[in-house]
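pasting Lipoprotein for the record, 178 residues
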Amino acid sequence: MKYIIILLVLCVSGCVSYSVTEGEIQDYLDSRTTFERTVGIKGIAHANVQFNDVKVGIGRVANDRVNLSSKAQAEIMISGQPKQSVEVDIDFSAIPFYDKDEGAIFLKDLNVESLNVTPDNLGIFANKQLIAPIVSIVGQILSTRPVYRLNDDDFKESLLKTAGPELKIKNHELVVGL
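structre below
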């Protein structure tokens, strides 16, 4: 009951909001987005992929979207060919949304804005069979894991978390508020 009264007072005074900055999302992702996977069919064509670098922008590409630049390094092995190192730079944009059950901000409607593969002479087989799954894995991780979770230990964030707030982009920040 005490929390409801405090929440009502804060709502009436218009003070119930929390801004999540690009730096906070960057720190959150930096501590949670490192992974390594293998894609393809071992013995025929496969790639060991390391993904560990995401850069965040809020409302910089479009007013209602978060943009993410990510890098993946891959060791590509194709039967009968020498192993090849590849770097994949991908720029995504996505719409942020708040999931009340999780108390977290997720991304939806992920779009690939740009894709750069170095070296670019991998051939059609490697591009279709290995680069597409790498892009898909990176996109899947970014769209299924939260980019920020409200903190239960912070009074204001915990109040917002239970109230099911709206999410808006304002001044290059995600504003969570009622």
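Residues 150 and 157 are 6 Å apart (CA to CA).
DSSP finds four helices and nine strands in the chain.
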